[in-house]
Structures are given as C-alpha cells and as structure tokens.
Amino acid sequence: MNTLTNNKSSNAVDLSFSKDFIKITFEDARQLSVPLEWFPRLRNASKEDLNNWRFIGDGEGIHWESLDEDILIENLLI
To answer: What is the pTM of this model?
Structure first.
C-alpha cells in the first residue's frame, strides 16, 4: 500500500467554533475539526471566553488568557 504524506508544516490562520467542535483552518486551506469534549476548560466556557483567543508562535498554538488554556496544534495532528 502506498501512502501519500506531506512533511510540509502549515500554521493555523483561523479558528471558529460550533456547538461541539473547534474548527482550525491552516494557511494551505486544510481544515481540522476537534471535539470540544477533549478540552474541559473549553467545553465549559462561555461563548465570550471561547472567542477570546489568540494564536501563539505564528499559528503553532492557541491561547485563551481568561481560561488559562493553551493548545499546541501539532499535538492535534498526531
């Protein structure tokens, strides 16, 4: 079996939320949806707190100051 892989890393450029998921958009147009259930602080956060985020490390991670939460995007891709 052949598997196509892409070793080029791509940083996140946008972030949005649905009721149950975080959707991350990368600079190469890929998108990743991750369940909020994986992150109790985010799952229980208000809409206002969820939307108070910023990228760290040029899009390598996401930080929520008011929730004291950081997510390294690389860890979501493993």
So the answer is: 0.81
